[in-house]
Amino acid sequence: METVRVVLLGFGTVGSGVYDSILHTHQEKLEKVIGKKVEIVGILVKTEKERQLPGDVVVTTNIDEILSLPSIDYVFEAIVGIEPAYSYIKLFLDRGCHCISANKELLANRGEELSEYALERGKFLTFEAAVAGGIPLLRTIIQLLQVNGILVLEGILNGTSNYILSKMRNEKLSFEECLQEAQQLGYAEANPESDISGRDAFYKQMILSSLIYHDQPDWEKVERIGVEQVALEDLVLGEGHGLRLKLLASLRRENEGIQATVKPTFVSSEHPLYNVEGVDNGIVIKTDLVGTLMLQGPGAGSKATASAMIEDLVQIEQQKEPLQKVHRYSYQAQNEKENQQSIYLALFPLQTKEEWLSLKAVINENLNQVNILQEVVKEIDGSIFGSFLYEGALESISLPVLYKRYPVSPIGLKRGISNVVTS
Hints:
This protein is of the alpha/beta class.
C-alpha cells in the first residue's frame, strides 16, 4: 500500500491530538477512505523532554532536521503565533508539501498571502481547524456555497467564552469562578486573555472575511469587546426578558464596506444560537438563495481540531488539485439592511424601587428619543436591578442612574413584545 508521509509542527494539544488520531484511533478508517497508509515521520517540538514516541519518528527542536527528512507529503502546522509558523509553511510549500494549519493568528494576518503562495506552487494550504474546530464551516463556505451570496454571518466562535457565560447563567456563579473552572477543565489557558477579550474570535472572523469577501475590514475599526466585564446580574436580567448572552462575531457587507463586530450580544429564544451552550461553537449563515443555515458542534479541544485537520488531508487526497481562486471566491456580496432599528438591553443597578420609578419618569418625558419594549425589575442577592429592552437613542438622555448596555441580535426577535414588569 502506498504511504503518505506526514510531519507535525508543534506537539501540544492540537499536535498530540492529530498524532493519536492518525496512529491509533482512526488509522484503519483513514486507510480505507484514502487507500493509503498515513505515517508520521517527524515532529517539531518546542522543548526537549521525555515522550513515549516510536523510535522511528524524528522528534526534534531543530526545523532543519525536519526539512531534511525525505519524501514529506503533508505538514500539520500547530504552532502559536505568526512566526516562525509563517516562514516554516513557505519553506515546506517550496519543497512541494501540502500544508494543513490550525494557526488562527497567522491565517488572519497572512492567510491570503500564503494561500496565493500555495496556489502558485500547485499545493494546498487548508485550515478548517483554525476557525470552528470540528465544525466543517470553511468547507461549507468554499465548496457548498459557491453560488449563494452570503448576506450575514453571525457566530459563536470561542468555546471558552461560551462555556463561561453558560456556566454563569445556569449555576448562578461569578465570572471569576467560571473562568477558574474552565482553566481546570482545560477549556481555558493559564493566560485566557485571547479568549475572554474576544481576540481569538476576531482572528477567526477575519479569516472568514477573507474567504467570503476576499477582503478584510480595517482592523482598527472593528468593534471588539470581550466578556471580562459581564456580571451575573446581567445574565439574570437577560433571562427575565427571555434572552441569553453570547459572545457573537458578526460579519456583513454594506455600502460602507465590510461591517464586523465581536461583542457580547443577547439573543432571543427564536435565535438559532440560543441553545448553543457550553464549549460548543455555532454559526448562522444567511444567504440569498438557500436562506438561513445553522452549523453547530465542538469548537475546540484535541479531538475536534484533529478531526478537522485529518478531514483536510482526506479532502486533499480526494480533490487532487487546488481550487483556483476564481472558484473559491465566487461570492456575490450583497446588502441586507434590517427593517428595524437596533435593539438594546439597558441594565441599571438601583438603591431602591423608588429610584426605578424616578428613572421611568425621565424616560416617559423623552419618548421621542426611546421606545421601551419591555422592562424587568429583579432583586438579586439583596440588591435591586432594573432593565429596559428598548430601541432608540437612550444615550442622548441624561439619566439619574449609571447603566450598562448590550446589543440584542435582530435575528428571530419578535417585535410585538408587550411591556412587562417582573419583581
